[in-house]
Amino acid sequence: MTYPQTRQDGTAEVHFGVTVADPFRWLENDPRRDAGVARWIAAQNALSAPYLEGLPGRDVFKRRLTAVFDHETLTPPVERDGRYFFTRTGGLDNQAQLLMRDGVDGANRILIDPNTWSDDGTVALAEWAASADGAFVAFAMQDGGSDWRTVRVMDTSTGAMLDDAVEWARFTTLAWHPDGSGFYYSRFPRPRTGAEFGAGVEGHAVYFHRLGTTQSEDRLVHAPTPGRALLHNADVTPDGRYLVVYTSALTGGVGVTVTDLSSADPAPRTIVDSYDDRWILLGNVGTKLFFATQNDAPRGRVMTMDLSEARPGFAELIPERPDAVLRDGGSAMLGDRLFLSYTVDVQSQVELYRLDGTFDGTVPLPGPGTTGIVRGRPGGNEAFFAFTSYDAPLTVLRLEVDANRATVWAEPQIAVDLDSIAVEPRFYTSKDGTRVPLFVVRRKDVSGPAPTMLTAYGGFGISMVPHFSPAAMAWVEQGGVYALANIRGGGEYGQAWHQAGRRGSKQNVFDDFIAAAEFLIDQGITPSDGLAIHGESNGGLLIGAVVNQRPDLFAAALPGVGVLDMLRFDRFTSGATWAEEFGSPSVEDEFRTLLSYSPLHTIREGARYPAILVTTADTDNRVVPAHSFKYAAALQAADIGTRPRLLRVDTRAGHGAGKPTDMVIEELADMWAFAARWTGLVVTDVD
Of the residues 222, 498, 534, 655, which is catalytic? Predict the structure, then answer.
């Protein structure tokens, strides 16, 4: 294969006595302002597109992916004064709509349809929030996959748009003041003209926007922290009494500041001043706050604080459990109960507790899987939550809290015979003896070695919990195996599991993944020459690193929107915040650790590499595409065998959120056909 010519220059830097060449640094330039980079991208796509379009089975994958994506999915509704707000993805719509019902079983009314916002479907509805009386919805618009947001407001009774507009919001939540006069949001200072795409993360702050005013009048609520790249997000308790600001250093922990909005002179009060532990407010009863936290409890516990006390402090209500991890994101105060979602070996178990901490029953679930997106409020008896699994599409359950009775509120119909799918929880042993969970998904009639797609994430304390994936189903339908390893760096077993895979311990992440690959082959699940791997973002880093460390182990590799230059990641957009996870290239011992696994810098000349398809998008300002550009150029310039090393670049698409469904399907069809070609998966039409 003849690759496009990529200019190399003599750029090099000395770091702590180590000379590091960077001959493709010019590819860091913004392609919208550098014609040379734009031409290089066009040449790469001109090579990869015909190759991918001509692969056997590519059309079959596209048809099946289209069929499996073609179903209606609703999210658990938010109730505001008798009005129910929720999102709906209908079939092959490029973007989710925001709908409203008057009453829980009322007729659907479309409030916001982003599918009408652009011809190419690349403008998406992002964050949204309804006011306490349901009269207004504030919503964020995401253009072309960018992390930047423009926030607008709609009158829900008339559907009319207000004149209010907020710009330069990014990494934001939206939270209404209880009187409906305005909302809280997070933004950065306006970047200088021409620097919007690569703008960093200094100066993130929370503001209050009052309806009917201009953004220039917005009030600063929580100021940025000088000298630190911290992110700040606001929430308001369901009773409207407290404004809660969470401050994150992306270590998995947050600081917490609360403001009593009912006070005649509201003043912020910091109750957690470090960023070492997770703290999430589950709800409040008057001045008593209920938190889920990992403070002195790596697997999570519930603590309370009464702000009316002269010297308020935290008190334990529900202790840490040795056999389960408390998932704060799937827990809440509902009615006069605490709805606590635990994971036991990466599968959800939901329990109710009274507000005095006594156990009050287990919530029945449809089967093994994952719960999340909990909607409800203290004092009410009605709540909603989502359930999903590898063989169960996202279903919304309505919970009568007092009776502990769950019924289906919305359940999609999928063009897959789910009864033919087997989900097998497994465990394997990593290099250092650590026991790691692994899920294997395949058709029940597939028993011998079959081409396998293995994925993982392994970072930022993010848990890869069981969930329905049309992409996985399309691979499994063809007789392939889809496997997901719950490697260290995530939060599957709490704070310690995360800590064991970050900064100086990052090699554990790669060892865990390599051990998963070896296990699949040793167990006869996967043939020795039939393993493909994929991962995105931090998962893209994972794929790039393990390919360099064990190129012999894989037939195909699919790193997507990956962090691939570990010596310069902190120079771009939000990368400065990742130093808390990876370590800093400007600190000598951390630099040497980063250099030891950086995918761009550890390509092994002379080794026989798998086929590699690198995917990214030109407007990704989360992990800038320069990571993928430089990595692909280095792969193509290296002597690493004859299998293809291709780059696929989407246009007007970002890091993943907000990507139109038709673009997702096209990309997945390319990826799966590429992997099938090199793993030996025979693709046939499925009736």
Answer: 655
Residue 687 binned pLDDT confidence (cut-offs 50, 70, 90): low
Q: Is 64 helix (H, G, I), strand (E, B) or coil?
A: helix
Look at strands 73-74 and 78-80 and give their pairing.
unpaired
Task: Determine the residue type at 85.
Answer: F
List of residues 6+ apart from 144 with CB closer than 8 A: 122, 123, 619, 652, 653, 654
Instruction: Tell me which H or E stretch contains 36.
Output: helix 35-53
Q: Are strands 18-21 and 268-272 parallel, antiparallel or unpaired?
A: unpaired
Active-site annotation holds for 186: no
What predicted TM-score, i.e. pTM, was given to this entire model? 0.94
Q: Does the annotation count 655 as an active-site position?
A: yes
3-state secondary structure of 297: coil
Q: How far apart are CA 608 and CA 643, in angstroms?
A: 8
What sign has the CA pseudo-torsion 73, 78, 79, 83?
negative
Residue 617 gets the label, from left (phi > 0), alpha (psi -120 to 50) or beta, of: beta
How many whole angstroms from its chain centre is CA 223? 26
Burial of 503 (0-12, 13-18, 19+ CB in 10 A): middle
pLDDT digits (tens, 9 = 90+) for 463-509: 999 999 999 999 999 999 999 999 999 999 999 999 999 999 999 99
**Cα angle value 338/101/125 (rounded, 5°):** 85
Given 146, 248, 537, 628, the catalytic residue? 537
No. of helices (H) and no. of strands (E), the chain = 10, 39
Amino acid at 375: R
Facing residues of 128 across strands?
Answer: 139
What is the tens place of the pLDDT at every residue in 506-519?
999 999 999 999 99
